[in-house]
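Sequence in, structure out.
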Amino acid sequence: MSQQVKSYISPEEYLRLERQSEYKSEYLNGEVFAMSGASRKHNLITGNIGSEFNQQLRGKACEAYMSDMRVKITVTGLYTYPDVVVVCGEPKFEDEYVDTLLNPTLLVEVLSQSTERYDRIAKSSYYRTLDSLAEHLLVAQDEVRLEQYVKQANRQWLLFECNSLDATIELESIGCTLAMRDVYDKVSLDQA
């Protein structure tokens, strides 16, 4: 029986390779994980949320990034690409390349069948170790469903769920709102 030997890659080697690559990969514990492409629905929802944030954050001390801003979770060593990232105040980066953010205020993941379990369980728990993170959103792409996790003063996380197109979500950490109709604009949803 043959075994596949996994080779350990250092964080420095990962960053060197990632910065030269045409495709994005995540990194954790010495392993590199290729990221798959996103569906039309996923892209529409990500774009809708990102454009809402960009419009509402004009003139404010916050910046929104979509899909290509790498975030490092220092406690776990995870390098990842959330679907939407917002940082308020002075952004802090890992190095002079200014491509790996260390202090996000809000992170958004649009869930897909292939990544939902990982995004919901592992990645969300990694995100919650970030001192700077105040809110985290999980957004379904096949039904109207948004889960909003808000950090409380005691460092506990409070969950708010929304499943109505008529609802609006308040995002206090960045001073924005998200109308669910805008989140799902142009997205055809499966009717149960």
